[in-house]
Automatic annotation (TrEMBL):
Family: Belongs to the zinc-containing alcohol dehydrogenase family.
Alcohol dehydrogenase-like N-terminal domain boundaries: 30-149
Protein source organism: Brachybacterium kimchii
Domain Alcohol dehydrogenase-like C-terminal: 190-324
Protein name per its UniProtKB record: S-(Hydroxymethyl)mycothiol dehydrogenase
EC number of the protein: 1.1.1.306
Amino acid sequence: MPTTVKGVIARHPNEPAELTDIEIPDPGVHDVVVDVEACGVCHTDLAYRDGAITDDFPFLLGHEAAGRVAAIGDEVTHVAVGDFVVLNWRAVCGDCRACRKGRPQYCFATHNASQRMTLRDGTELEAALGIGAFTEKTLVHEKQCTKVSEEARPEVAGLLGCGVMAGLGAALNTGDVQRGETVAVIGLGGVGSAAIAGAVLAGATTVIGLDIVDEKLQAASDLGATHTINTKDLDRDQIVERVQDLTGGFGADVVIDAVGIPSTYETAFYARDLAGRVVLVGVPHPDAELAIPLADVFSRGGSLKSAWYGDCLPERDFPYLTDLYLQGRLPLERFVTGTTDLGGVEDALNSLHRGDVLRTVVVNR
């Protein structure tokens, strides 16, 4: 029988998120019902609410979550009832063209639940990133569940489900930061701050954080940034010069743009060393356009990359990073700047506009 729980939905673009009753169907043969213990409030949820992802309203918001498996379908083998899991939105299929080429981090046919969750009147809900976790329970495919250590706090472990993994992976996987390299990160929200932590973890010796908010610059220093630059009153050329001054006059080996607007990307492009790497992890608006002289693209060499989910493989990366956190080598707890309940999701979404938090986490007690 379907289960009725509370969940947060977006009915129409740019309207407040709404706490209401939703129906969780019994799991299909490869589906899993998860008791959601914690879920981070991510910019992607804000984009869903405001209609910047698709117009497939209504949405069940939330996706950056951890919890326990409550029920499983008849043919589920990947997890068992009671397992503590982090939910992921790249449940590798193993058979699409990316997987067959040995690039499963780009899987184009990721698994999702076989059924939709609904409102009580039967209206089907589009789950954010195929998860929908601003709720007491959610329904996902078994491969969307990644088991991690029972010792991890849910509000911390769940952050690996999206934003923190995106930033860590932008440095560790996409940017392939090597020991002794120099790294600059533009934009120090949750994703950019995680990129700082990833660069430090990879062994970069110079790690530069750039933002317009002093509190975020301090947070980056706390995460291991060796230098910070407040860019509020600086133009592109001045920013580039400051980065070059901190990197022997050359520019950074890797520059990560965690904002995703044309001006920050241009800054990233010119702030890197010759043959350096640019990583775009900030999600641009669909209407954003970029104009960089093609001769500059050619003459500066290197690579221009986009980080999709930090190029992560959840089954490889989530347990590994959770263990580093438990060993005290990855300060994931620093990303949790506040907690709330399901009734506070709308306020938490609006706080993202103000840029005064890294992550507010919804905790179901």
